[in-house]
Amino acid sequence: MNATENYSIRVEPTQNSRLSQVDFDNLKFGKILSDHMLVADYDDGEWKDVSIVPYGDISFSPSMSALHYGQAIFEGIKAYKFADGTVSIFRPDRNWERFNKSAARLQMPEVPEEIFMDGLNKLLDIDRNWVPAKEGSSLYIRPFMFGTEAALGVHPSKSYKFIIITGPVGAYYSKPISLKVETYYTRAAEGGVGFSKNAGNYALSLYPTQLANDEGYDQIMWTDASEHKYIEEAGTANLIFRIGDTIITPHGDTILHGVTRRTIMELAEKWGYKTEQRKVSVQELIDGIKAGTVTEAFAAGTAATITDISRIGFEGQDYNLPPVEGREFSNKVLHYLNELRYGKVADPFGWNYLVK
Q1: Integer Cα distance of 10 and 55 in angstroms
Q2: Residue 181 sits in the same domain as residue 278
Q3: Same domain, 162 and 187
Q4: pTM over cut 0.90
Q5: 221 and 186 in contact (C-beta within 8 Å)?
Q6: Boundaries of domain holding 312
Q7: What is the DSSP letter of 326?
Q8: Is residue 44 part of a domain?
Q9: φ, ψ dihedrals at 39, nearest 5°
Q10: Domain boundary residue among 170, 195, 212?
Q11: 198 & 299 share domain
Q12: Residue 333 sits in the same domain as residue 301
């Protein structure tokens, strides 16, 4: 189905583009937003008023339900520019699927494909000049939705707003990171919302992350809620290890099912590596580092892409990983993904969604 058949997208072009003010050689992550945004409203059981308008403030009631009861979800996607000027979005269909899984868990309405995908296409077509051409840079895309009912009382909101904003970005991390294994605070528990990309998951991470920063670490390595024995995520990204000759990632419903993580594991299988999605204990990781069998460890996510881990702190002691230069798998997959996403090699998987 096409958006024009079901949802007429109104377009209001900006009269004051900020594009000329952007220094594309010095992009800071999340600080610069593009000229336009897509906005859609849900009320009376249906989506309506789908529009692309100039980026700007929105008004809301102080009793808006999302502010009080936390019905807020989001996604992270990236778009890239090929050498010939083609704009490509990397696997947005997977983000749309995950977005709606988050919506279902938080008792929110699903966003139809015509609004999410066709709206995204139209938005990026209008703002295609905001997509950086420089390798290592991209256009970050943030779809999000929140409850807008102006009423107090714990119940699902009767109305919602779906918005997509974008902005040119450079690298999220500029160097390998250090992690502290967290053995007290918890990110997610069985039966909870760990697999969904909801705002609350990130709010609860801020305080323990600051404590880790104060000790000299860049991020937290989250562990399970019940025993703190099993590794889950790296701050706001998934974790992937190479232990022996196997590429391993922690797995479970307390872990965000990342699109980048999924992509990396699919590539590993295609290239003939052994792969496993299973529980990984902290002790297995530490013993493997000491024995030299853990040769690679990195965080994977849309923002982080692939960020190598240099050091892991556990119970007051640091454990150093091998030098990044010698890491065969993470370097290989990062190089290939860059070649693929910038259109330098053929796309046999159909992962690049070309903006029409």
Answers
A1: 14
A2: yes
A3: no
A4: yes
A5: no
A6: 177-341
A7: G
A8: yes
A9: -135, 135
A10: 170
A11: yes
A12: yes
Residues 112, 29: one domain? Answer: yes
Assess whether 215 and 321 both reside in one domain: yes
Strand ranges (DSSP E) for 44-126? 46-54, 72-74, 77-81, 87-90
Q: Domain total for the chain?
A: 2
Q: Find tokens 């058949």 and name the residue.
A: 5
* Torsion (CA) 338, 341, 342, 346 in degrees, nearest 10: 100
SS3 string of 40-58? EEEECCEEEEEEEEECCCC
| 144 and 192 together in one domain | no
Beta strand pairing call for 219-223 and 231-234:
antiparallel
Q: How far apart are CA 54 and CA 52, in angstroms?
A: 7
What is the distance between the alpha carbons of residues 58 and 131, in angstroms, rounded to a whole number?
24
Last residue of a domain, one of 147, 170, 193: 170
Is the sign of the CA dihedral 214, 316, 239, 111 positive or negative?
negative
Q: Which amino acid is at 183?
A: T
Return the residue matching tokens 């995520």: 233
Query: pLDDT 10s per residue in the chain (356 long)?
Result: 333 347 899 999 999 999 999 999 999 888 999 999 999 999 999 999 999 999 999 999 999 999 999 999 999 999 999 999 999 999 999 999 999 999 999 999 999 999 999 999 999 999 999 999 998 999 999 999 999 999 999 999 999 999 999 999 998 777 999 999 999 999 999 999 999 999 999 999 999 999 999 999 999 999 999 999 999 999 989 999 999 999 999 999 999 999 999 999 999 999 999 999 999 999 999 999 999 999 999 999 998 789 999 999 999 999 999 999 999 999 999 999 999 999 999 999 999 999 99
Instruction: Residue 100: give its domain's CATH number.
Output: 3.30.470.10
